[in-house]
Amino acid sequence: MAATFLSCQQLAQxxxxxxxxxxxxxxxGLLRPSQRTEARYRRYGxxxxxxxxxxxxxxxxxxxxEQIQQLLDDPAFDLTTALQRHRQALQARHARLGTLLSTxxxxxxxxxxxxxxxxxxxxxxxxxxxxxxxxxxxxxxxYGPATIAAAExxxxxxxxxxxxxxIAEQKDINRTLRHLRHLDPASPAVQAQVARHYANIVGFWGxxxxxxxxxxxxxxxxxxxxxxxxxxxxxxxxxxxxxxxxLSAAIRCFGQ
Length: 256
Known about the structure:
mainly alpha; 2 domains; 3 strands; activator; transcription; TipAS_dom; transcription regulation
């Protein structure tokens, strides 16, 4: 059965993009037509349709065109694996949007005169009950009571929806970074996600860590991810030392 080829106008209409966008993708080498007519009109076949789908998926995940091209042109790129990871990432985004809706509802409630404050138990959610207090004592001993009190106050001011949003965003970032593990930790695509990771960590710290001290404190996490077994559990509670090593290396490259 002969392959069906689409004109630039037909593909633009099918994919919901502009003809100008397809022309731009062609100029930068991101999506080239497989054929041109005698009149030099572009013609796109099935491989180009699949590649455009991948481009649109990655754009939905906030990748730049340069990063998308680097990913799609990587010899290790596998379409089936990419589709599975896109599905996971979209599920994570769906969960994050649910959290945002919850945040809006809580904000409306706050403006109407109510406010949900976090308890100590909620601040350390995710740790078993018998470990939460031990973990708090550990961080107080390491960073000092004033720093931890300031961090806890910051999180209480965020409220439960704000904390849930930070946690959901962190999960989304980790899923995306796991998707990029085949790349060099210093590559632009990885470092763009590390920048998101840094901003997310700063969101947890708040004013407890002075702005001038944040880069060094963030670099300290790189070693922590290697030394502390709790930080290798980055994938649905499963031990993932390979990911911890990748993230540690990516953090060390950040800001260089």
